């Protein structure tokens, strides 16, 4: 340890996504390569001497206790824990959650130090991992509200790779084996007799950590919700969700010096007739076992919706991934004017 392959892999993965801005401290981490990166991990982050760094990933993260603040993090997976290396600016910005971080005022405010905060989730405390629709994000759940984190990878490959690495590391944990399962029939295994609803697909790892994947009903529920937002104009049977992707909406902010653009996280859903932008709650659903009441907001809140037939053109930027797309719509005030004329003219 570490092997040549691991060193190369971690060095390749240590790249901040170009569209997201991070503090100087995290830029320093992103500049480390190979051996320097492993030494940095052991000297500054690792909690025990014999743990090994197995995987590194840059991702936006959300905390259950601070659901409105999406923050960039360097996620480090070792044989003992998952470490989230965060911007120090996040802790300052989120004053209402200061008790969550137990941060003491430091004397380094005006010095040349660049601080980072490291949030640690020990593998022994891990209870379940919820994978989001189309592997766009995943939520790690520990034993309390302080230990729930969602990683918004916005990339199925990154999600898949992390889950694979996590399963491999969990296999190394020595835990008491689960009792032998009682043979169950299909309905008691997958269905709840009280509600008649199918449960999400669960995979229980040998370490007793649950990996929960969405089932087909979740897409059905989403299609129903989308149809509701379309004022029932569409037959639900013919409504197909063609694309579900976590994206950013670009809002241009006109500043005095130069106009900057802020990125608003949105869920983009494309159907055969409409394009929707939703504000989605990625952290509160499904409800954790200790939750006393439902979340304050719905999982999906409609932010914008346009008909595809009103789409005039799509402009594509020339930069590499992530690609910027601009959708230009014809906003006709009375959209159904032609339709009504046709009915009057040809109808009985």
UniProtKB/TrEMBL annotation:
One of its GO terms (molecular function) is kinesin binding. GO terms for cellular component: endosome membrane. Keywords: Cytoplasm. Its main location: cytoplasm. Signal peptide: none annotated. GO terms for biological process: Golgi organization; lysosome localization; regulation of protein localization. InterPro entries: PH_domain-containing_M2, PH_NISCH_C, PH_PLEKHM2. Residues 114-178 form the PLEKHM2 PH domain. This is NISCH protein. It comes from Eolophus roseicapilla (Galah cockatoo). The lineage of its organism: Eukaryota, Metazoa, Chordata, Craniata, Vertebrata.
